[in-house]
Amino acid sequence: MGKKSAPRKVAENEAMAYARLIRTSPQKLNVVAQAIRGQDCEKALSELTFSKRRVANEVKKVLQSAIANAENNQQLDVDRLYVAEASTGRDFVMKRWRPRARGRMGRIFKPFSNLTIVVREREETA
């Protein structure tokens, strides 16, 4: 009499990892996500390791989580994985105020982002 299980969000040859509340703007996060889209997971990990962007470390953690999900939950071959999707989204924005000259206030926005990474197993070419 329980609830019916929800259908899978990804296919059988895919695995997904999702991160919320990443403390950067979606625009900056998308620059890093765009750099790894379509790449093999090993190459994407090495690119994120040596990237100069601060948010690259967070993206690397999410990618490692997606690879671990593929290996442990879906029993996919780690050597044939590639980054199929890397999408960013907007979360909430903290609004702060800074006093300015002549009694005015300056707005400071501190945006947060979401990140979804889907890794897929490459088809065997015979």
Account of the protein in words:
- This protein has three helices and three strands; from the N terminus they run E-H-H-H-E-E.
- With 126 residues, it is α+β, with helices and mostly antiparallel strands.
- It has a single domain (14-121), classed as Alpha-Beta Complex (Ribosomal Protein L22, Chain A).
- A three-stranded antiparallel sheet has the order 1-3-2.
- Strand 2 and strand 3 (105-121) form a beta hairpin.
- Helix 2 (41-49) runs antiparallel to helix 3 (56-72).
- The radius of gyration is 19 Å and the shape is elongated.
- The mean pLDDT is 94.
Brief digest:
With 126 residues, this protein is of the alpha+beta class. The protein has helices at residues 26-36, 41-49, 56-72, and strands at residues 14-22, 81-99, 105-121. α2 (41-49) packs antiparallel against α3.
What is the tally of beta strands?
Answer: 3
Largest beta sheet: strand ordering: 1-3-2
Which geometry do the CA atoms define? elongated
Q: What fraction strand?
A: 35-45%
Biggest sheet: strands, sense, closure? 3 strands, antiparallel
CATH class category: Alpha Beta
The portion of residues assigned to helices is: 25-40%
Task: Assign the CATH architecture.
Answer: Alpha-Beta Complex
Q: Average pLDDT, to the nearest integer?
A: 94
Low-confidence stretches: none
How much is the radius of gyration in Å? 19 Å
Provide the CATH topology.
Ribosomal Protein L22, Chain A
State the end-to-end CA separation.
Answer: 47 Å
